[in-house]
Amino acid sequence: MSADLKFLVWSAVWCVLLFLPYVLARIQVWGIVDTVGYPENPPPLPAWAQRAQRAHLNMVENLTVFAVLVLVAHVSGAANATTALGATIFFWARIAQGLVHIAGLPWLRTAAFGVSLVGEAMILFQIIAKF
What we know:
Largest sheet: none
Helix content: over 70%
CATH superfamily: Membrane associated eicosanoid/glutathione metabolism-like domain
Number of helices: 5
CATH architecture: Up-down Bundle
Number of strands: 0
CATH class: Mainly Alpha
Distance between the termini: 24 Å
Shape: elongated
CATH topology: Four Helix Bundle (Hemerythrin (Met), subunit A)
Protein backbone atom coordinates (compact mmCIF):
# COMPACT_ATOMS: atom_id res chain seq x y z
CA MET A 1 0.00 0.00 0.00
CA SER A 2 1.32 3.44 -0.90
CA ALA A 3 2.15 6.04 1.73
CA ASP A 4 -0.72 8.18 0.44
CA LEU A 5 -3.24 5.41 1.08
CA LYS A 6 -1.72 4.57 4.46
CA PHE A 7 -2.10 8.16 5.62
CA LEU A 8 -5.65 8.19 4.29
CA VAL A 9 -6.43 5.17 6.47
CA TRP A 10 -4.69 6.69 9.49
CA SER A 11 -6.57 9.95 8.92
CA ALA A 12 -9.84 8.01 8.99
CA VAL A 13 -8.74 6.35 12.24
CA TRP A 14 -7.94 9.77 13.73
CA CYS A 15 -11.36 11.03 12.64
CA VAL A 16 -13.04 8.15 14.47
CA LEU A 17 -10.92 8.69 17.59
CA LEU A 18 -11.73 12.41 17.68
CA PHE A 19 -15.35 11.75 18.58
CA LEU A 20 -14.43 9.91 21.79
CA PRO A 21 -13.56 12.91 24.01
CA TYR A 22 -16.85 14.72 23.54
CA VAL A 23 -18.95 11.56 23.74
CA LEU A 24 -17.24 10.61 27.00
CA ALA A 25 -17.86 14.15 28.29
CA ARG A 26 -21.53 13.80 27.40
CA ILE A 27 -21.75 10.54 29.31
CA GLN A 28 -20.08 12.16 32.31
CA VAL A 29 -22.24 15.32 32.28
CA TRP A 30 -25.55 14.05 30.89
CA GLY A 31 -25.48 10.39 31.87
CA ILE A 32 -25.83 7.47 29.50
CA VAL A 33 -29.62 7.75 29.04
CA ASP A 34 -29.52 11.36 27.82
CA THR A 35 -26.36 10.72 25.80
CA VAL A 36 -28.07 8.05 23.70
CA GLY A 37 -31.43 9.83 23.78
CA TYR A 38 -32.73 13.25 22.86
CA PRO A 39 -32.74 15.37 26.02
CA GLU A 40 -34.86 18.52 25.80
CA ASN A 41 -32.68 20.77 27.96
CA PRO A 42 -29.33 19.09 28.56
CA PRO A 43 -26.79 20.83 30.78
CA PRO A 44 -23.99 22.50 28.83
CA LEU A 45 -20.85 20.53 28.18
CA PRO A 46 -17.48 21.90 29.29
CA ALA A 47 -15.87 24.25 26.77
CA TRP A 48 -13.15 21.72 25.92
CA ALA A 49 -15.81 19.11 25.05
CA GLN A 50 -17.61 21.58 22.79
CA ARG A 51 -14.30 22.30 21.06
CA ALA A 52 -13.66 18.56 20.76
CA GLN A 53 -16.94 18.15 18.91
CA ARG A 54 -16.06 21.00 16.55
CA ALA A 55 -12.60 19.48 15.99
CA HIS A 56 -14.23 16.18 15.05
CA LEU A 57 -16.71 17.83 12.69
CA ASN A 58 -13.90 19.83 11.09
CA MET A 59 -11.93 16.63 10.53
CA VAL A 60 -14.97 14.98 8.93
CA GLU A 61 -15.26 17.92 6.53
CA ASN A 62 -11.56 17.91 5.64
CA LEU A 63 -11.23 14.14 5.40
CA THR A 64 -13.65 14.16 2.48
CA VAL A 65 -11.49 16.46 0.36
CA PHE A 66 -8.30 14.66 1.39
CA ALA A 67 -9.79 11.27 0.49
CA VAL A 68 -10.85 12.46 -2.95
CA LEU A 69 -7.39 13.89 -3.65
CA VAL A 70 -5.54 10.77 -2.47
CA LEU A 71 -7.82 8.40 -4.36
CA VAL A 72 -7.70 10.41 -7.59
CA ALA A 73 -3.90 10.64 -7.35
CA HIS A 74 -3.73 6.88 -6.80
CA VAL A 75 -6.12 5.91 -9.60
CA SER A 76 -4.71 8.41 -12.12
CA GLY A 77 -1.12 7.38 -11.54
CA ALA A 78 -0.22 10.81 -10.16
CA ALA A 79 0.83 9.40 -6.79
CA ASN A 80 4.54 9.95 -6.20
CA ALA A 81 6.97 11.11 -3.53
CA THR A 82 5.38 14.58 -3.51
CA THR A 83 1.87 13.25 -2.94
CA ALA A 84 3.24 10.97 -0.22
CA LEU A 85 4.82 13.98 1.47
CA GLY A 86 1.58 15.94 1.07
CA ALA A 87 -0.39 13.11 2.69
CA THR A 88 2.14 12.92 5.51
CA ILE A 89 1.93 16.67 6.10
CA PHE A 90 -1.88 16.56 6.04
CA PHE A 91 -2.04 13.74 8.59
CA TRP A 92 0.33 15.24 11.14
CA ALA A 93 -1.14 18.73 10.70
CA ARG A 94 -4.61 17.32 11.35
CA ILE A 95 -3.38 15.59 14.52
CA ALA A 96 -1.95 18.93 15.67
CA GLN A 97 -5.10 20.81 14.63
CA GLY A 98 -7.35 18.48 16.60
CA LEU A 99 -5.23 18.62 19.74
CA VAL A 100 -4.77 22.39 19.77
CA HIS A 101 -8.44 22.89 18.91
CA ILE A 102 -9.45 20.88 21.98
CA ALA A 103 -6.85 22.74 24.06
CA GLY A 104 -8.37 26.07 22.98
CA LEU A 105 -5.38 27.56 21.18
CA PRO A 106 -6.95 29.36 18.20
CA TRP A 107 -3.80 30.71 16.53
CA LEU A 108 -2.09 27.33 16.59
CA ARG A 109 -5.31 25.68 15.41
CA THR A 110 -5.47 28.02 12.44
CA ALA A 111 -1.79 27.48 11.63
CA ALA A 112 -2.19 23.70 11.76
CA PHE A 113 -5.23 23.94 9.49
CA GLY A 114 -3.19 26.01 7.03
CA VAL A 115 -0.41 23.43 7.04
CA SER A 116 -2.94 20.68 6.30
CA LEU A 117 -4.14 22.71 3.31
CA VAL A 118 -0.55 22.85 2.05
CA GLY A 119 -0.45 19.05 2.17
CA GLU A 120 -3.66 18.84 0.17
CA ALA A 121 -2.39 21.41 -2.34
CA MET A 122 0.75 19.34 -2.88
CA ILE A 123 -1.42 16.38 -3.88
CA LEU A 124 -3.72 18.52 -6.03
CA PHE A 125 -0.82 20.04 -7.99
CA GLN A 126 0.52 16.57 -8.80
CA ILE A 127 -2.90 15.55 -10.11
CA ILE A 128 -3.13 18.71 -12.23
CA ALA A 129 0.40 18.14 -13.57
CA LYS A 130 -0.61 14.64 -14.66
CA PHE A 131 -3.27 15.99 -17.02
